[in-house]
Design brief:
single chain; 190 residues; alpha/beta; 7 strands
Length: 190
């Protein structure tokens, strides 16, 4: 609760100087208006807890904004996230990654997602990739335990990471070279 109050002045994009980052926070990460498929997804997944649904809806909007991106998900990412991602982007695809199945270079429109508890293989792959990095990486459950907080810190210090959106229990790392090197603490969810 205290963390949400501290982040309140920065919620909804206020205080962000970059127009493109402001629009991204305002209309993708923290959009308040319901999208076209939310009702259908609520009917399909009625028992989803409020916080998980809020994160899934944010992934839906990210998928919608990225168009036909390929999402690579680790085994620890819940299946309902994949449902929201594919509903959000009409041409979005999700692929479950095994430890040995990561590519040497990411495609132009790839988004990777991992649970912080099983993100070690992703960190290893990002360290050894010599080609193009993914557009962004979503790391879930970053405040669940001391180990997941440490994993989050390890991702934060990657030299290729440009912009970090810390949304308390989920984080988004971008590798876009034209975005500023900055960390934004965003109040996400309702």
């Amino acid at each position: 609760m205290i963390a949400r109050l501290v982040r309140k002045p920065r919620s909804r994009g206020f205080g962000i100087q970059s127009p493109s980052i402001y629009r991204f926070v305002r209309y993708v990460l923290d959009e308040r208006w319901p999208y076209y498929a939310y009702a259908d997804l609520r009917d399909a997944l009625p028992d989803l807890p409020k916080r998980e649904r809020s994160k899934a809806e944010m992934l839906f909007r990210l998928s919608n904004a990225s168009g036909g991106a390929l999402w690579r998900l680790t085994a620890g990412v819940p299946e309902f996230y994949a449902d929201y991602v594919t509903a959000g982007g009409r041409q979005a695809q999700t692929v479950r990654q095994t430890d040995g199945g990561w590519p040497e270079s990411a495609g132009e429109q790839e988004i990777w997602m991992a649970d912080a508890a099983d993100a070690e293989p992703v960190l290893t792959v990002l360290d050894r990739i010599t080609g193009q990095k993914p557009v962004c990486l979503v790391l879930d459950n970053i405040r669940e335990s001391a180990a997941t907080r440490e994993m989050f810190r390890r991702f934060c210090v990657l030299s290729e990471v440009r912009t970090i959106f810390d949304m308390y229990d989920i984080a988004l790392f971008t590798f876009c070279p034209n975005w500023p090197c900055q960390t934004y603490k965003v109040n996400h969810g309702r």
